[in-house]
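Sharing in case it's useful to others searching the archive later.

Someone asked me privately for the predicted structure of Transcriptional regulator, so I'm posting the question and my answer publicly. Question first, with the sequence:
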Amino acid sequence: MKITMKDIAKRLNVSINAVSIALNDKPGVSDEMRLQILRTADEMGYINQKKQYLSIFSKSNICVLMQSYYANTGHFYSIVLCSIVEQAKNFGYFSILNYFEDNDFHMPECIVDRKVAGVLVVGKISDSHLKALKKVGIPVVLVDFTSLGDPCDCVLTHNRQGGYMLTDYVVLKGYKTIGFFGDLDYSFSFQDRFMGYKQALIQNQIVSSEEVDSYIEEHSFLHNIEKYILANEITEIVKILKSKKLPEVLICANDSNAFAVISALKDMGLKIPEDIGVTGFDDTPLCEKANPQITTVQVQKELMGQVAVSNLMDRIHRKENTPMTQLLSVKIVERASLKL
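And my answer, the predicted structure tokens:
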């Protein structure tokens, strides 16, 4: 049975004229009512029947793509997502959230059917899937991720700056042996934070540029870690920490790593910060749940979502060819996991 404007009007208890105005993108109804009519028309199958309304419908939607495992990895992306949804509303857009698996990617129907004006990818996505998205011809902006192989608009935390600032900070606290704890194979963000840490070691003359790699090898834990962090396998973290002589302080790649490291160090009978200092990165609620509370780097999570949506709006309306990368600055939040 074919759906008509009359059916939509009846469902919403509005006039057929109001439905027609909304579907044809004409003035005469509120933005809220227009969005409600478009949503209902799509739910009832009318948009698929009347392809001429697709371009109007897409003007009210953006797609937000995120790997499903991020949904269970903490507070960071929940704040970013909330910010995206609110900022999109401010521009008159509805956010359609789609989870995906990077090893089994299927293009969301809303993108295939061109029911969205643009796409935000939150977190990691492989280059092959990113290329497939861009081939559709809909603007794409990456959030908290960048692709080295396929240039794309992206909004990132200035991770290298954060790694540098935090290392510089612990040097000023008097620490001499400073290690890094984080799986460099897990993300570009971790790699950038590590590079900031490495650069600060050299700049503060903790170690020479010629000897920095051997220094890091002696004091740091850089591989085959994140799977244990995600699974909260503290016994495995203990084994990793016991594999080397511990430094005076560990700069952790993020707050989840720092939280797990503190738990593992306690299981080893060590006190924080008396026996060893620990820092995090991101300033998630884990920092205040930990005992002691974690000194960390505050990332502008809400601003990240806001800037990503604003950049996508700009790309939707201007469609310039040069991809842009924006780095958001950070600041240190001091708590109790370092010596005073």
